[in-house]
Amino acid sequence: MSMTIYVANIPANASQQDVELLFSPYGTIESIKLITDAETGQPAGYGFVEMDDEAAGNAIKGLADSEFRGQTLQVNQARGRSTDR
Known about the structure:
- By secondary structure, the chain is of the alpha+beta class.
- It has one domain (2-77): 2-Layer Sandwich (Alpha-Beta Plaits), CATH 3.30.70.330.
- It is built from 2 helices and 6 strands.
- It has helices at 16-23, 53-63; strands at 2-8, 29-36, 43-52, 67-68, 71-72, 74-77.
- A 4-stranded antiparallel sheet has the order 2-3-1-6.
- The chain is globular.
């Protein structure tokens, strides 16, 4: 099984490769999606990393509240979008 990790507070100058290097010590990365602002195309400061459950759990523990390029990352298990309003 795999788990999707939500990563917030990613510095604007961080590339997908930078995020890959950050997470790769914890295990094999299945996918990385960095979100951009639809209007400006600029980085939105968050993204998603998909890894197997064990690697994802280790990455969350190891990277939550860690500093990356001068910013404190928020790293936790992604939750599905709620359709309740």
